[in-house]
Amino acid sequence: MSAAKGGLVIFTANSNPSSRELGRRIAERLGVELGKVQVYQEANRETRVQIEESVRSKDVFIIQTVSKDVNTTIMELLIMVYACRTSCARNIIGVIPYFPYSKQCKMRKRGSIVSKLLASMMCKAGLTHLITMDLHQKEIQGFFNIPVDNLRASPFLLQYIQEEIPDYRNAVIVAKSPASAKRAQSFAERLRLGIAVIHGEAQDAESDLVDGRHSPPTVKNIGAIHPSLEIPLLIPKEKPPITVVGDVGGRIAIIVDDIIDDVDSFLAAAETLKERGAYKIFVMATHGILSSDAPQLIEESAIDEVVVTNTIPHEIQKLQCPKIKTVDISMILSEAIRRIHNGESMSYLFRNIGMDD
Prior knowledge:
Blueprint: E1 8-12, H1 21-30, E2 37-41, E3 47-51, E4 59-63, H2 70-86, E5 91-96, H3 114-125, E6 129-133, E7 148-151, H4 154-164, E8 171-175, H5 181-191, E9 194-199, H6 205-211, E10 243-245, E11 252-260, H7 264-275, E12 280-288, H8 294-299, E13 305-309, H9 315-320, E14 324-327, H10 330-342
Parallel strand pairs: 1-4, 4-5, 5-6, 6-7, 8-9, 8-11, 11-12, 12-13, 13-14
Antiparallel strand pairs: 2-3, 9-10
Organism: Culter alburnus (Topmouth culter)
GO biological process, one term: 5-phosphoribose 1-diphosphate biosynthetic process
Pfam families: Pribosyl_synth, Pribosyltran_N
């Protein structure tokens, strides 16, 4: 049937051909055709969007995957949302599997909470609903004043473990830092496996920025405060020697996280696990950004396999590194679109999902 049947229109807002693959998969599962739209860059790098069919009084779903040019991706989405709004669409639902700038969701020194800014821009442009997957911090949902459905990729990753790792019963779920221990615990409890946590020098640098470990040393300046005030100085944190809490000797180690971009912390964790006796190492994450020379580093590392979903296109990275495998999550996105369009409950997609998933 056509994309417009039943008042449903599906657009892909990305001018990058490789980024439109997820949209085609979703449309195929729904039995519709993608809506007709032109998205391209002018000679001066301005983004132009031209919708080529009527969207008046229809539910418009805009699928946008993040390419390497993140800022262009955002502008394409905002311009298309606004174009649909001015064309009198009834509802404009953004399907953004990986929410960009999600790591910039906390105030750090004199920085800014960029994900809050981006949420405000999307709402101002005319977005009425958002479908996303595995937000870096669940609190990002509070930045929006529209409904947000934060879907989970864990059922697909768990299924991959059970079907593609024959001896997974001899595995242990690993958190590469204490910050990801809750996610690892959730995987371990569902698979009835043990858990291990890496603590120490291999801990990722994001936590360092949050807790102020990289701040300049405090200088006691008596003239800057009232003489009667004696503010106690906070003792600076110091990372302990690297430690693996849990037994990984003679086991398969499965490192789980939500994003894999800069792979240095994953490589360090893999080396540590090899030294502790793990004989196979898998890395599983929802969003495979895999920037820069990540594929080459993975190929040369102790990691046996990296499993990510197709929330972000990474076909080029797969050609560079055969260790990278993809899990398709178009099924849950297409079901979410169908339920929202038909006014059905979304609770089925969140069954058995806990706060830590």
